[in-house]
Amino acid sequence: MKKQQRERTRILVGCEGESEIGYAVHLRRRADEKGLFVHIDPPKLRGGDALARLEWMEDYIAKEEARRDPFEHKYALLDTDQNRLTPDRADKARRLAERLGVTVIWQDPTHEALLVRHFEGHTTRRPPSAAAATAQLEKLWGGYAKGMTAMDYMRALTVEHVARAGDVEPDLLSLLIAIGLVTIVDEA
Description:
By secondary structure, this protein is α/β, with parallel strands linked by helices. It contains 8 helices and 4 strands, in the order βαβαβαβααααα. It comes from Asticcacaulis excentricus (strain ATCC 15261 / DSM 4724 / KCTC 12464 / NCIMB 9791 / VKM B-1370 / CB 48).
């Protein structure tokens, strides 16, 4: 008799760039360490603004789900820095994400700013620009550079770091719960 293999939960995490891919793969490795049955698919989204990236993601979802089972959860890691330049396109991006069932983890203004909020004592920091975010992050994480790999993230960020950021970033928390890295305890 064949032993039935347990299906992994399919989670899509669309990534704006290489840094986000490294971050998503880092989350997958943390899940593997805990023996969680998840598969995180972190495609790099085509360049452009948030709307262009989500339009590409719409095609990707359609192709992937035509070949395999649907994704149980869909997320995208997107910067907000371009949203201010074209607010109408940013609005369309939000509506498209909602229609697709994609939870966007808005990195305000960039991925580096989101990373700052992973560090103790810095969860409320909201750097006003990409340059300020990078400068703050470099002080907290010596050796940080754009395009970090999953292994770089593994060395610098624990599950506690990620959970700390999830405490102030509700959409990131949603991803962490979907993966199983964080659980919500009902205190009632």
